[in-house]
């Protein structure tokens, strides 16, 4: 999703994020120039403490999970 949003690139294969990944997107909202600094954090249990540190004092947080996997939704609660 990060590469699709920041670079408009779509790939058929999924490579899970290990730790953290970063993307930058420039945009325009209601005539104002904005800059999105986007962090893609791993959902793997061993990376959850790192992810929590990145979420601290962020303005927006989006959470993505697999709707076909109940366990992935259960792991969202932190």
Under CATH, the homologous superfamily reads P-loop containing nucleotide triphosphate hydrolases
How many β-strands, per DSSP?
Answer: 2
Rg estimate, integer Å: 14 Å
Second CATH tier, the architecture: 3-Layer(aba) Sandwich
Shape: globular
Low-confidence stretches: none
Q: Might you state the CATH topology name?
A: Rossmann fold
* Major beta sheet, strand line-up: 1-2
Biggest sheet, in brief?
2 strands, antiparallel
Order of helices and strands: HEEHH
> Between the first and last Cα atoms, what is the distance in angstroms?
22 Å
What is the strand content? Answer: 25-35%
Number of discrete helical segments? 3
Keywords: GTP-binding, Lipoprotein, Nucleotide-binding
InterPro entries: P-loop_NTPase, Rab, Small_GTPase
GO molecular function, one term: GTPase activity
């Amino acid at each position: 999703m990060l590469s699709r949003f920041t670079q408009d690139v779509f790939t058929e294969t999924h490579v899970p994020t290990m730790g953290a990944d970063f993307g930058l997107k420039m945009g325009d909202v209601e005539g104002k120039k904005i800059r999105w600094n986007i962090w893609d954090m791993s959902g793997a249990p061993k990376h959850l403490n790192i992810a929590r540190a990145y979420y601290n004092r962020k303005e927006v947080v989006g959470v993505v999970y697999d709707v076909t996997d109940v366990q992935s939704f259960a792991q969202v609660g932190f």
